[in-house]
Specification:
It is a single chain. This protein is an alpha+beta fold and 629 residues long. The chain folds into 4 domains: 1-30; 38-145, Nuclear Transport Factor 2, Chain: A (Roll); 161-332, Penicillin-binding protein 2a (Domain 2) (Alpha-Beta Complex), CATH 3.90.1310; 337-628, Beta-lactamase, CATH 3.40.710. The protein is built from 21 helices and 25 strands. Strands 6, 7, 8, 9 and 14 form a 5-stranded mixed sheet that branches. A hairpin with a 2-residue loop joins strand 1 and strand 2.
Length: 629
């Protein structure tokens, strides 16, 4: 019988022998490849071809149908928006005629950035050498048959455009997409014609889109505000093929509300995509013009991006990676909701070219910028360049008063006068005769002002105009014309400049500044965004300001601006009828400047004939709308 001590010694010897045997087995079946094995070489060649986009070569290194592998590679890279790929073999374990490589995949996905993960790639040895065993998990460990990688990206809700008092002027509002699904059509022409008759959709573009569309694709015809859609819903419902989809878009309170200034948001174009670059992509909504375009990046923020797995139908079934987006920054403007609405009501539904600007004289803050026609993206209220006509007489009068002219001085107002070989007349040939200058101003007598041209130096009008903000650079984020008052080249041009003709040009914005300067006695730099600089011009002589105020008030109470005499408060104003073009008699723009309390406005109607008959009534509508709130 063995001794207990001997038995224990035997066991102690047996344990190390067993461990050694196990280690020997492991060493026999596991090899950490360092690039010098045939399996490693096959894997490296496969991955290199995949990285380079040489799908045929990569597929040739697998045990599957080359066509299948090429298709899978292309589908996954396309699904990742053409991402570039870098791979690294972390380890390779070989066991006879089989091997498994752990590979790190690093995709550089456009917009989303780096997408990194690890997957196992199996290899098998055959008569032809080592080949990759193809399965969806080669691309990603979570993929199954019929699935592929894909991306999703979307910008957060666009930041609002805010007005005075923090009121959101532009924010997500309900809209309805009207479109056609080709597979559900009975008669394409019937559907297209119905949409074109009741909306502004382009029928030719819609027909072209339908020709290129897939059978079950929703082909967008037009997007309408919810309230606009309700007006035509019954006329389109029930027509086979026409469908509706509800959504939201960043919109102002109404379609016309400061449209040329604020702008719109719509699908990105190829040109915009090239200009904006990352993080933008096809299908994104971007600002098309106005503030929406100027402040696109600030309002849009940055997009959220996801890498997903899509099934055979293209539906995302799993999220693999996500990059969070950031919402944009609200744009804080000086626009006043109530004042802008009053400006829109004043211009109404007129189809001709017109503009109305309202500003706060004490600060220079723009309160309203309205333009017609609504569809026009040109902001004539800020950018337009027009002869100001008789509204410029406010500046001329300031220069004359400071040269020594008195309001009671008699200045003849003949029917016609010639200066430097050029003939000047009053609008519609009116003549007041020898009357006090005060009446020449209130009745807007051209010939009286022309007769006083020799009282001023050639540079006097330009210098005085700058005191009213004309001829300056306006520091605004959007295009704006500060006016041009060049020194006259001869006596005839000096005479024309006295009545805002010749080469003098101004925008409605600039002329609203003229009215505001009279209201406060000092011009203020226009401001549109809360961050815009605040700058004031020189203070005008108080005597000049008081006399200009009395003259402009008399225009409303007894002169050419009596269309505003029934409005509440002490409105002061000046009419203008500005000639332009080569017609005989010349065509004219209609102007009116006005101020009341701390609101100054300029109204322009292109080709509108008389300022008294056309522009002044619009100004009256504005103040009445403002009072009714």
């Amino acid at each position: 019988m063995s001794q207990p001590g001997s038995r224990r010694r035997g066991l102690q010897l047996a344990v190390p022998l067993i461990l050694l045997a196990a280690v020997a087995v492991v060493v026999a079946i596991v090899v950490v490849a360092r690039g010098d094995s045939e399996a490693r070489s096959a894997l490296d060649a496969f991955l290199a071809a995949w990285e380079d986009g040489n799908y045929a070569e990569a597929a040739a290194g697998t045990d599957a149908s080359p066509r299948t592998v090429r298709r899978e590679f292309a589908a996954n890279r396309d699904g990742l928006d053409g991402a570039s790929l870098v791979t690294e073999v972390l380890s390779l374990e070989e066991d006879g005629d089989q091997a498994t490589g752990e590979v790190e995949m690093a995709w550089a996905v456009p917009v989303i950035g780096e997408f990194r993960y690890r997957t196992d790639v199996e290899l098998r040895s055959a008569d032809v050498g080592w080949t990759v065993h193809w399965e969806p998990q080669v691309v990603h460990p979570e993929l199954s048959e019929g699935q592929r990688l894909g991306t999703e990206r979307a910008f957060p809700d666009r930041a609002p455009i805010v007005g005075r008092g923090g009121r959101e002027l532009v924010k997500p509002r309900p809209v309805v997409d009207i479109g056609i699904v080709p597979a559900e059509l009975e008669d394409r022409d019937t559907a297209v014609t119905a949409i074109a008759e009741h909306t502004e959709a382009d029928p030719q573009m819609l027909r072209r889109a339908l020709r290129d569309a897939a059978p079950n694709q929703f082909v967008l015809a037009i997007t309408l505000r919810d309230e606009e859609f309700e007006q035509i819903r019954e006329r389109l419902e029930g027509i086979p093929g026409i469908q509706f989809a509800a959504g939201k878009l960043p919109l102002a309170p109404t379609r016309e509300f400061a449209r040329a200034l604020i702008g719109t948001v719509g699908p990105i174009t190829e040109e915009q995509l090239e200009e904006l670059g990352e993080p933008y992509g096809v299908g994104d909504q971007v600002g098309q013009f106005g503030l929406q375009a100027v402040f696109e990046r600030e309002l849009a923020g940055t997009p959220m991006g996801r890498v997903v797995i899509r099934d055979a139908q293209g539906v995302a079934v799993q999220t693999l990676h996500e990059v969070g987006g950031e919402r944009g920054t609200p744009l804080r403007t000086t626009l006043d909701l109530r004042v802008q609405q009053a400006a829109e009501r004043a211009l109404g539904n007129r189809s001709g070219k017109a503009a109305l600007v309202a500003a706060e004289p004490s600060s220079g803050n723009l309160l309203a910028v309205a333009n017609r026609p609504v569809e026009d993206t040109f902001d004539r209220a800020l950018e337009g360049q027009y002869p100001p006509g008789s509204t410029f007489k406010v500046v001329t009068t300031a220069a004359l008063l400071e040269s020594g002219l008195e309001l009671g001085d008699t200045v003849d107002c003949p029917r016609q006068i010639a200066v430097g070989g050029r003939s000047f007349r009053n609008f519609e040939g009116s003549a007041q005769g020898a009357v006090p200058f005060r009446l020449d101003f209130t009745e807007s007598c051209n010939t009286a002002f022309v007769s006083l041209a020799d009282r001023l130096d050639r540079d006097a009008l330009g210098e005085k105009a700058e005191d009213f903000g004309l001829g300056r650079e306006y520091e605004l984020p959007v295009a704006a014309f500060g006016g041009s008052v060049p020194e006259p080249r001869d006596a005839a041009e000096q005479a024309a400049s006295m009545i805002g003709q010749g080469r003098i040009l101004a925008s409605p914005l600039g002329m609203a500044g003229v009215a505001g300067t009279v209201a406060t006695g000092r011009w203020q730099q226009p401001r549109l965004i809360s961050s815009d600089p605040s700058d004031a011009g020189v203070e005008l002589p108080s005597a000049t300001v008081e006399r200009l105020r009395s003259l402009m008030r008399a225009v409303v109470t007894s002169g050419t601006g009596t269309a505003l005499s029934a409005t509440s408060g002490k409105v002061a104003g000046k009419t203008g009828t500005a000639e332009y073009g080569e017609q005989d008699p010349p065509a004219t723009h209609a102007w009116f400047l006005a101020f009341r309390d701390d609101v100054a406005i300029a109204v322009l109607v292109e080709g509108g004939a008389s300022g008294a008959e056309v522009a002044a009534p619009l100004a009256a509508k504005f103040f009445k709308a403002l009072d009714s709130g």
